[in-house]
Amino acid sequence: MPDVRLASPQGKWILLTTVLGSSMAMLDSTVVNVALPRIGEDLDADLAALQWTVNAYMLTLAGLILLGGSLGDRYGRRRIFVVGVVWFAVASLLCGIAPNAGVLIAARALQGVGGALLTPGSLALIQASFHPDDRGRAVGLWSGFGGIGAAVGPFLGGWLVDGPGWRWVFLLNVPVALVCVPIALRHVPESGDGRAHAARFDVLGAVLGALSLALVTYALIEARSGSLVVALTAVGGVAAGVAFVYVERRRPDPMMPLDIFRSRQFTAVNLVTLCVYAAFGGFFFLAALQLQVVVGYSALGAGTALLPTTALMLLFSARSGALADRIGPRIPLTAGPLLCAAGMLLMLRVGPDASYLLDVLPALLVLGLGMVTLVAPLTATVLASVDTARAGLASGVNNAAARAAGLVAVAALPLLAGMGEEAYRSPAAFDDSFGQAMVWCAGTLVVGAVVAFATVRPLPPDCRKPECLHHGSVTAPPLEGVRSRGRLTVEGDAPA
C-alpha cells in the first residue's frame, strides 16, 4: 500500500513534479492558439498550416492517451512519466527552432506523443504514491494547480508572443522539464502493476484509431481543392474507422472495449461531449484569430481577453458539481450547452469596432457560465454510468472523445464557414467567416442540449464521484484515475 503523506517533504515534491509535468501539456493545448497569427506571418503559412499546427498535437494526444496509463503500469509509472516529460521537452525544442511550417507540424505531432505519456502518468503517480487518506486531497490540489496553469496559459502565451517571440511558447517547456525530471527521479517512488505484464498492448487498435482521425482530418482541411486524393483520403479514413471498430470488438484485451457503450447513459453523455467539445475546440481556435486579425488586439491582449472563461471554471466548477449532486445532471447538461450557445451568438457582435466591456466580455462571461454549468456534471455522469471498476476507462474514453471532437472541429469549421486559405490575412473576409462559424458552433451546442435533455437520467446514490473538483482546461473534461491492464482504468478504492 502506498504510504507517502501529503504533508511530508516527499509528498510535496511528488505534487510539484506532477503539476509541472501535466501543466506543460495543458498549457500547450491552449496557448498555441494565441500565437497562430504570428506563426503564420513568420513562417508564411496559410490557414491549412495553422489548422495542422493545432491538430497535429491533438491527433497524437487523442489517439494515444488511452495507452499512456498502461505503459506506466507495465514499465513503471515514474519511468514512463519521465520519458513523457523528456519527449515533450525535446519535441518542444524542435517546435521552437522549426524553420518552416512542415517541421513545426511534425514536431507538434511528436509533442502530442509526449503529452499522451505524461498526462495520465502524472495522475497515476499521485494515486500510486500517496497514502489513501491523503490521496483525495492530493488529487484535488493537482487538479486545482492545473486549473491555475490553464487560466494563466493564454496570458503567458500572449506575453511571450509579443515579447521574446512565439518560439518561446515552446522553448519555455525545456527549462520546466529540466526542473521536473530530476525531482521525479529523486523523490517519486517507482510503481507499477504486475498484472499489466499479462496483458498485450492493443497497438493495432491505437494505430487504426489514430490513422482514421488523421485521414479524416486531412480530407476536411484539404477539401477546398476537391481533388481525387482528398476523396480517397476521406474513404480511407472511414475504412480505418470501421477496421478500428472490428479490431476492438474481436480483441480479447482491447484498448477501448466496445461493450462499455452498452450503457445508454454512457453513450448519451459521450454524444453530448462530442457536441460540446467540438464547439469549444472550434471556438477557441477561431476566437484568438478574430480578436487579433479583426479587432486588432495584440497577442497579449487576446490571451488576456479570453481569461474569463477559464477563470470562471476554476473558481466555480466545484460548486457546480455540488449543485448537480443535488438536482441531478439532466438540467445542468441541458442548460449549460444552451448558455454556451448564447455566448457564441453574442460573439457575432465582436467586429472591427468591438468594445471589450460591451461586446467581448459579456459573450465570454455567458460562455464561461455555460462551461461551469456543464463540465462537472458531465464528468460525474460519465463516472456514474459504468461500474466503479471501469470508471477510469470511462473517463479516458470521454477525454479522448472530447479531444477528437475538437480535432475534427478545427479541421471542419473553416470549411463549413467558407474560409479561404488566406482568410486570416484579410480582416473583412475573416470577420464574415467567423460569424458563420459561431452559428455552426451554437447549433452544435443546441444539438448537445437536446441530446442531454432527451437521454440523461438521474445518477444512482452510490455512484463514484469525481476526484478532480477544480478544472480550468477548455480542451477536454478532467481525466480521472488511472490504473490499467493494457488500458485505462481506475483505482477502485480511490476516495471521492
Structure description:
The chain is mostly helical and 496 residues long. Helix content is 74%, strand content 0%. It has helices at 9-43, 47-75, 77-96, 101-129, 132-162, 167-171, 173-187, 203-221, 228-250, 264-294, 299-305, 307-327, 330-346, 356-384, 391-416, 427-455. Helix 1 runs antiparallel to helix 2 and helix 5 (132-162) runs antiparallel to helix 12 (307-327). Residues 482-496 have low confidence and may be disordered.
Topology (elements, then pairings):
Blueprint: H1 9-43, H2 47-75, H3 77-96, H4 101-129, H5 132-162, H6 167-171, H7 173-187, H8 203-221, H9 228-250, H10 264-294, H11 299-305, H12 307-327, H13 330-346, H14 356-384, H15 391-416, H16 427-455
Binned, the helix content reads over 70%
Alpha carbon gyration radius: 21 Å
List low-confidence stretches: 482-496
- Inertia-based shape: globular
CATH fold-level name of the largest domain? Growth Hormone, Chain: A
Beta-strand content: under 5%
What is the assigned CATH homologous superfamily of the largest domain? MFS general substrate transporter like domains
Q: Provide the residue-averaged pLDDT.
A: 86
How many domains make up the coordinates? 3
Instruction: Please identify the structural class as seen in this structure.
Output: mainly alpha
Q: Tell me the number of strands.
A: 0
The sequence of SSEs as H and E is HHHHHHHHHHHHHHHH
| CATH uppermost class of the largest domain | Mainly Alpha
- Tell me the major beta sheet: none
- From the coordinates shown, what is the CATH architecture of the largest domain? Up-down Bundle
**Helical segment tally?**
16
Distance between the termini: 18 Å
